[in-house]
Amino acid sequence: MYLGSFSPDAGVQRGTVDPRTGVLTVGATVPDLPDSSWFAHSADRRIVYVTNELPEGHVSAVDAATGRVLNKQSTHGEAPTHLSVHGQFLLTANYGSGSVVVHRLAGDGTIGESTDLVTHTGAAEAHAHQVLPDPSGRWVVAVDLGTDSVYVYGLDPASGKLRARQQLRLPTGYGPRHLAFHPDGRRAYILGELRSEITVAAWDPSAGLFTPGQVIGTLGDATPPQNFPSEIQVSPDGRFVYAANRGHDSIATFDVRGERLAFAGTTPCGGAWPRHFTLDPTGRWVYVANQRANAVSWLLRDPRTGRLGSPAGSAAVNSACFVLFGRNAR
């Protein structure tokens, strides 16, 4: 397992997990990777790509087996918060400068030169928070918290250039942070950080267009306190959606009912300010990076009902912000 944190000297730590008990044991630190806020595997899982969320942002390629840093490249922007792999390209969102940068990946998985940089504009200052390919592989989707928009781009495989297809404008002050696609590739769930809401959007992969639908609160019908949702994920079987609530310090569970979500409840996350979480490969455990608790906690999950149990344990990780299972985890 790889663990990310906002730390100038220990931004990445490696760990191991006992799949039977869920217990996480934190191990060695990977040096020279400060403020490592997001990770993604290469297609063959030999390399982990890492954002270094600094004023002069960069992305790093790390050997997944040894933890050795292979190379780094500038993101040509500020505070990169998210990255993903799309074929022969690495896509990165620069939160501070509101831009999306594309890098070509070399045959050995190292990060090559950038091929494009697109800066968002709007009535408010742009803050690109996520960028990822759609499930069909035909489109690139960028979520911008500052412009209250989700952008759809095509990506030319020869030039590495982005071309605009759609700007889905959400209500002013929605603050879209992340989205997660349903496994059927026809729906997406857009998480609003500033309104504690999820928008269910139909997705047409042939046209590259979103159509927004149901809006539901991350705390059900409850009036949210000071709460800022951070992460959203869909179970691999597509039956459940989960969202992390920072402030309320919980994980919300939703049942997927066709084109709609039904709120099932919240479970304490086992810490404070859950910035990220992930399901383990067995589907039996959920690991939560609790940034202000300086810990990663784990909760038992029932794969049949989708319900989460009380926190079962935690491990110390300074300013924890991300959890990624290693190359051999399936």
UniProtKB/TrEMBL annotation:
GO terms for molecular function: 6-phosphogluconolactonase activity; isomerase activity. This is 6-phosphogluconolactonase (Cycloisomerase 2 family). The keyword Isomerase applies. One of its GO terms (cellular component) is cytosol. It comes from Herbihabitans rhizosphaerae. The keyword Cell cycle does not apply. Keywords: Isomerase. It comes from the Bacteria.
